[in-house]
Amino acid sequence: xxxxxxxxxxxxxxxxxxxxxxxxxxxxxxxxxxxxxxxxxxxxxxxxxxxxxxxxxxxxxxxxxxxxxxxxxxxxxxxxxxxxxxxxxxxxxxxxxxxxxxxxxxxxxxxxxxxxxxxxxxxxxxxxxxxxxxxxxxxxxxxxxxxxxxxxxxxxxxxxxxxxxxxxxxxxxxxxxxxxxxxxxxxxxxxxxxxxxxxxxxxxxxxxxxxxxxxxxxxxxxxxxxxxxxxxxxxxxxxxxxxxxxxxxxxxxxxxxxxxxxxxxxxxxxxxxxxxxxxxxxxxxxxxxxxxxxxxxxxxxxxxxxxxxxxxxxxxxxxxxxxxxxxxxxxxxxxxxxxxxxxxxxxxxxxxxxxxxxxxxxxxxxxxxxxxxxxxxxxxxxxxxxxxxxxxxxxxxxxxxxxxxxxxxxxxxxxxxxxxxxxxxxxxxxxxxxxxxxxxxxxxxxxxxxxxxxxxxxxxxxxx
Length: 464
Ligand SMILES: Cc1cc2nc3c(=O)[nH]c(=O)nc-3n(C[C@H](O)[C@H](O)[C@H](O)COP(=O)(O)OP(=O)(O)OC[C@H]3O[C@@H](n4cnc5c(N)ncnc54)[C@H](O)[C@@H]3O)c2cc1C
Fold this sequence. Notes:
- With 464 residues, this protein is α/β, with parallel strands linked by helices.
- The protein is built from 16 helices and 11 strands.
- The strands form 3 sheets. A 5-stranded parallel sheet has the order 9-8-7-10-11, sandwiched between helices. A 3-stranded antiparallel sheet has the order 1-2-5, with no helix packed on it.
- Helix 1 (12-45) packs antiparallel against helix 2.
- The protein is elongated.
- Residues 93, 171-172, 269, 284-287, 299-302, 304-308, 346, 349, 460, 462, 464 line the site of flavin-adenine dinucleotide.
């Protein structure tokens, strides 16, 4: 342990881990750009730029390069969602989800551009010949029927992911449809094997593409299939007790073998499946609500739908399957000695675990607790305040305005000034924020305006 400032040191390891994560993010970004650059270089070397001089050749050439970029991004997309631990830790849930959206929509748009431009080029630049050429390409060229089926899967996934459409779907339906993305990628890419000029003519390019495919498929098999299987067999998690925590909220305690080897930290979440009940195949994400002690895990759940309601009927001994631990709302994101934990509603859950699990001196941690009527974990937080010197700022009441993170009443100052009045040295803190999407946005806006740098803000929302 070394000191950065003040009476108690911020342990060296978290700072180091935050730096490693930042380095991983930079390396992952660089690798993706390198992949894009490499395929562009081969496209240029194959005369891609010269072809732009002619109308028909130009269309085909642009179609080729957009297809190559789309393929690289589609494979990157698969890796991003494969729950690769090093990426999970480096990005965290919210950043990964945002990245997934950007990369996903970009690769999809490029894929559409690829289809339109290539077909138009093969149709000698005549729009009237477009439908016939599309038909001929589909039926005459190897792998193209599969590619069409893959494209249709991806169209369905993207259409159902557009915000307006997503709001009308249940999470479960959306998630199930989303799994077709794997099928879509699997079917859409192989036509490269038979028809892709770059794939066929350059050994280096062939090696590049096979490696990229192998990495994407391997990541899914290892981290989405094999690792969860091994973990569940090894730890054999079971329910010990279900405890009511107040109106519409309950905690589930679980125990298992060698849980210290699970590598879970306070503030992280798992996806959970409780066997032996209807709908057990659907996994729901829940954060740990107590710092893991190597023997027990606890989650605390607000009843909002069928899945969460069913947890009240769980019997001791029920087998539990988990995937995780995920997320970077943990000590590993730490860069400062002081911490502020800011939560609203059930968003207090991971913060409750962090208030226990983080390393801090009395007076160096503050918990800002937004709730409507009754605070969750009142007794536990009071005991933490006494035991650890955690300062608690309670902000009860309904929201002042849809764009505000504050409750009604209190001083009429704006969101940013109130935040600075509560935490004058805000910029000296790592701030962990968790709550509903809209509320979290209001808070992070105020925190940014109050001068908090983004790399000191660690956010998780419970949305999808
Ligand atoms: C990273 C993360 C951590 C979370 N931690 C907690 C926690 O500690 N405590 C807690 O009470 N809740 C937590 N949630 C929210 C919780 O996952 C959902 O409330 C729960 O899955 C709802 O399932 P249901 O079957 O009861 O409700 P449903 O009837 O299926 O849905 C009710 C609402 O919950 C949302 N929802 C459903 N399934 C999911 C899902 N898999 N992911 C995200 N939202 C979903 C739907 O949008 C819907 O609005 C967390 C969510 C995420 C993403």
